[in-house]
Structure formats: C-alpha cells, structure tokens
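Holo model, pyridoxal-5'-phosphate. Inputs:
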Amino acid sequence: MIIDHLRSNVPVTAPKADIVTAARALVNVVPEEGWSTNTVLAHLLQDIASGLARGASGPRFFGFVTGGALPAAQCADILTTIFDQNVQVHLPDETICTALEHKTLLLILDLFNIPRETFAVGSLTTGATGSNVLGLACGRDAAIQHALSNSSYSTGDDGIPPNITIRVLTDRHHASIEKAAALVGIGRRNVKSLEHTIRPFVQALEDELKASTVQGKKVATIVVVSFAEVNTGDFTDLTGVRDVCDRYGVWLHVDAAFGAMACLLPEYAHISEWMAQADSLTSDGHKWFNVPYACGIFYCRSRQLLTSILAGSGAVPAYLSTSHSSNENLDLEWTTTVPSPLHTNIENSRRFIALPLYAALLAMGRQGYVDIVRRNVQFARNLSEWMCSEENGGGKWFEVLNLRDVKVSEGTSSKEEQGEKKMVPLNVVLFRPKDTDDVPTAYRRSTHRGNKGTATLIRDVNATKKLYVSPGAYSADDGGAVRIAVSNWMTGYMDDGADLEAVKDVLRGLMRVDS
Ligand SMILES: *Cc1c(COP(=O)(O)O)cnc(C)c1O
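Output:
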C-alpha cells in the first residue's frame, strides 16, 4: 500500500503551485493561545504536506544517494520519539539504550564482514558528515603526534602546534571532507585530491609523501578515500595503501557513506578487507540502509584517541560521568564496556537513532540487504544499457560517462558470460545529453556555454515531478552531467519494470519535443 501510494499518486517533489500555497500557509507568529493537537495535525497534513517533496522516500527520487525509509525503520523511528531516550550517558542500571546502540554497531560490522575487534570504538552520528568530522579530528591528532614524535600530545587539549601544517590527501573526496577539514582546524585549502588517471592511487600517494618529507616545515598527513565516489560509484584501489600509510605514519580514513553496502555483492566482496584496513571508517544509516534521517555511522581503531578528543584529559562533570552498574545481578558484559556516547560523539544529548537501524537490520537480514543492493545496482545498469543502445534505446540522445570494466560474476546476471563488461560500476548513472541534431537545441553543449544545456535538462526532468535527479561532476570543461543515484529499497521492487519505464518515458518525452 505504501509502495503504490508513493509509486503512482504522489508527485516526487512538490509542484510549484503547491509550494506557493503551502509557503503562504506557514504561520508567522507564535499563537498566544496554543492550538489543540488535532488542529496542529490538521494544519500539518492539510496545509504543509503538499508543499513537501513527499516522494523523497519513494522509488523515483534519485538525488544524493540517500535511500528511503523501510517500514520497520519508520515504525521504530516513531517509537524512538515516543520512548524519547537520551542516549548521552551510559546508565546501565537505568536503561539498555546504550547497550542497544553498542550492539547495533557490532551487527553492522558483521554485515560488512569486518571482524568486530577491528575497531575499538564506534558511534552513531547525525550523518556521514558528522562521522567525517570525527574521523578527521582523530586523523589530525594522530598526524600531529607523529610529526612531533610525541604520542601523548593532545590537540584536543592544547590546540594545533605552530609550524605544523596538516594536509589531507584524497581520491576525489566528498565535499563534506572539506567541511570537516574546516571544522577541525585543518583548513579546506589543505585538502587535495591526487590526480591518478594513468597510475594507481598508491603510487600517486607515495610520490606525494616522499616529496613532502624533505621540506623544512613539519607536514602531517591524513589520507581519505571515498567508498564509493559519489559521481561515478568508483572505488579507489587500496592495494598497498595501508602499507604506505604505515611507512609514513599516516592516518587512513575511509568514507564509505553509501558504498560500504556494496561489499554484499560478490564482485565487491574485497572491499570488506579494505574497510578493515582503515584507522577510521564512516558509513551512513540514512543512505543505503534505508533508515530515516539523521543516522550516521562511525568506527575508530583507537578508543583512547577518540575519547581524548571528546572527553579531554580534564575532569568530566559529575552528572555526566559514566556510571558502572552497582547492581550485582547485572552480570552483563556491556554494563562496563560501553563508553558513554558523549565521549565518543559530537553531541551530548542525543536521539535514540540506533532503534530504527536495529529494526531495519532485523527486518531485512543479510539477504534482504543483498537484494536491495543488487536490485538498485541492476536498475542503474539497465538504465545505462538503455542509454548506450542506439537502436531502441536512448543512445541517440545520451552519453553515459561512468562506464567501467566491471567483473561480472555468477548470480548477478545469469545470461551474461563470465568476464569483464563495460557498465556502470555501482548504483550511479552519470550521463549527459549528446551534442547532436537528435537532441533539442536547449540541451546541446554547442548552444550554450558551460553547464547550461545539462542544467536545463535537469530542470525539465525535475519539473515533470515524476522523478528527481541531481547534477553530477564530470570534468571542468565538459558541459556538466546529470546524476541518477539509485538507493531506495522500493525502486524496481515487484513492479514489472514500471519504475525503469517511467524514467525512460520522461527522458524520451523531453528528447522528442524540440523547444
Ligand atoms: C553522502 C555522502 C557524504 C555526506 O553524508 P551525509 O549523511 O549527507 O552527511 C559523505 N561522503 C560520501 C562519500 C557521501 O556519499
């Protein structure tokens, strides 16, 4: 029922007229006398709802790789609100909420096929950006300790020492890495994506590290890779990277916001081992796990490093200090081993975000998540195949920009032979309109400077309200790109191909009309 509703009846994003009406209905003053709950609810449902992008959790919202919200997770999220736990201080005699969070973090490692003991500490955050802030803060302290040859130096306590520059070397990092660098005192300008089109990332990295160690000024380094890169779905080849990081004393942060789930597919099983090589690891609950916002995931190899930043070496106020159980009947391992979340997290008072994630893991199981990931990747591959076919497809109008040699393994596509095939690597299709006579002039690169043709196509696609796509980055002078990111559990779910047809219909419709 939820599916049918979101599939056919609801515009994916709010129609213009509804936005205007809903925005005008927004109340401008705090009412002197409060409204009844029923009146408030009626206002929200009748006046506000139509102005929202109600299909954002539905099958044809393809922006931002942010998935949707599984029914079990939605229900648990409502319970989170009703129970209203404050997951801040570990209070084992009062509530098991910190234990449930701890257990959820372990279950996620199991799902990723990462040994539980790999990371000494984990935390649920408000999103991958929050997790990246924690990762770069840990990397900053480790890098400075290495540069000073002083393993007890605390940047959290004493700040960044003069004469040390920290830089972050990346492979096509997500924008949130720069935000994190800005927040933890590293600075955006010290984040640098290494060019490595002709040689492996590991070589580009080693060259950069060699060059910088001879400079007079002390340089401390953090390495960040994205699993996967948001425009293309590419994974950085980490072979040898851990080794290089060890040799140069460099912290390795893996930002696996959405791509961590790819390890569930046989062709990406190897990324589990790569994620396990990280010093710190980011993932997201509100992306491919399909739980509601705001749910991020973070792991760190060193509990001491993380807690020294967040708790400091000074005294913690008594009312916030971790309580260990005084109840002798509670002989449960977690009563003493779980640190208070306020010492592993940016926030102090926090929502019980573990509950929806825990519920989603139980409702899906490993196989359920394998199915979602496989279905989403197949959807992207089917769409890109259509865009590459000139005969009965979109090939005369579109050009797919992220085709790669992908190993096809058994089980993913029974009809295909084993071996390599050109296709999109994961769940993202990055494409642009061709610059030919078949394409309406409004969308052509030769008609406009810069990104305007592609931007016009994106605007027109989104104006249909039948799907939502976002701009992608390709290269500086290419005229821009459109990105379709498939990460919703519903997309193509028992629909006889209706979602894929709906996308093709919209694209065909725009290409056939010359404006
Ligand atoms: C989405 C994404 C982020 C940011 O995640 P939020 O949950 O939106 O904060 C960071 N890194 C990568 C690789 C992403 O895909």
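The mean pLDDT is 92. Residues 65, 127-129, 174, 176, 226, 230, 255, 257-258, 284, 296 surround pyridoxal-5'-phosphate (CB under 6 Å).
Archived with the compound record.
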